[in-house]
Amino acid sequence: MSPRGRPRGFDREVALRAAMHVFWERGYEGASLADLTGAMGINSPSMYAAFGGKEALFREALALYGKTSGSQTDRALAAPTTTRDAVEAMLRDNARVYVEPGHPRGCMVVHAVTNYAPGNQVLHDDVAKLRRNAVCSLRDRIRQGVAAGELPADLDAEGLASFYVAVLNGLSTLARDGADAAELDAVVGNAMKAWNTLVRKQDDDGAAPG
Q1: What distance lies between CA 53 and its chain's CA centroid?
Q2: pTM
Q3: pLDDT of residue 171 exceeding 60
């Protein structure tokens, strides 16, 4: 017999992915229980029995996002390549996901809890921490480049990381506002043109690297 309140044939993973898309599209505050249960194909008692409530459901959906569509940054920064190539891959790979069909546009972490009720301050702070983690991860990747002699020893790793994560977050907003892949690609191209100026690294013949 199915657990009380859970319809026969209930697939928890499918329902969680559906909820993730609702939160991704409408944000935490904008996603009503009716929106969520309708997309998940279950009733409210089933949702509470399976996930424990809206906030717990959101946190699971956020974790799923981080392992799926939201995994581009971690993968790009872990790749065995130059720091510059890792940063460019971070921007381009995320930009591609931000506009691909089959799911909402932009980044769930950037947009899901920007407006919130006072009672959801902790949830907002936790999601803001995830956004700050992107800066920390990129900063650490830049510092690896410094330690390897690839980048100047006096490079402001924190400032450079903050700049490129700001570009990343801006790409998400542009995607939400309807920008297409070509527009995002142009933004990434311009951001990478700034790399040499920001890093101030020259190659052996004194010319800025391409």
Answers
A1: 24
A2: 0.85
A3: yes
